[in-house]
Design a protein that fits this description.
The chain is mostly helical. 87% of the residues lie in helices and 0% in strands. α5 runs antiparallel to α6.
Length: 171
């Protein structure tokens, strides 16, 4: 379940960072409205897609078990119910983490405005995904620093590409 949370958190923080950077020429209330709307929509979408994906995978495995048992149906069995609970939990974790991650780049806009808020948003997101990269590197027993730097670079690339696109469109 930690993987669902981390994936959702990174997705929420990077996609919402894209929204706040992409809308950076607007006023703070407009940026907040767009970012909050985007974060909630992304969270709901991630919840539903995770439920669909996890459920499809687990129910396919259940059907394979049924076939191996020469046609015994496991519908409404304890295993079937457990899969249902795990599917909902995984989807909820993914969606909630997306919303939590999405809140991170929004927060500076509650206290700051303009370039200062955008810079703080980028900094916070880069630091948090760097830390997640360290954790992923440790879990996977790979180079922790390289894993962390890759995640930080992803955050910086999102900000740079979206800022470039925004500046081209606005100018």
């Amino acid at each position: 379940m930690i993987s669902h949370f981390l994936r959702g958190y990174v997705d929420g923080s990077l996609s919402t960072l894209g929204i706040v950077v992409g809308a950076s020429s607007a006023s703070s209330p407009i940026i907040l409205a767009a970012a909050i709307g985007g974060t909630l929509a992304n969270g709901i979408a991630n919840t539903l897609s995770a439920i669909s994906a996890v459920g499809a995978k687990q129910y396919k495995e259940l059907r394979d078990v049924e076939k191996a048992m020469v046609g015994k149906e496991l519908k409404d069995s304890e295993l079937d119910q457990k899969i249902g609970r795990q599917t909902i939990f995984a989807g909820g974790a993914d969606g909630l983490a997306t919303i939590i991650g999405g809140a991170v780049p929004i927060m500076p806009y509650l206290f700051l405005s303009g370039l200062q808020a955008m810079s703080v948003s980028i900094g916070i997101v880069v630091i948090t995904v760097f830390l997640i990269g360290m954790y992923i590197g440790k879990l996977s027993k790979r180079n922790i620093l390289l894993s962390a730097l890759k995640m930080a670079v992803f955050g910086l690339v999102v900000a740079a590409v979206v800022y470039f696109i925004q500046s081209v469109i606005v100018s």
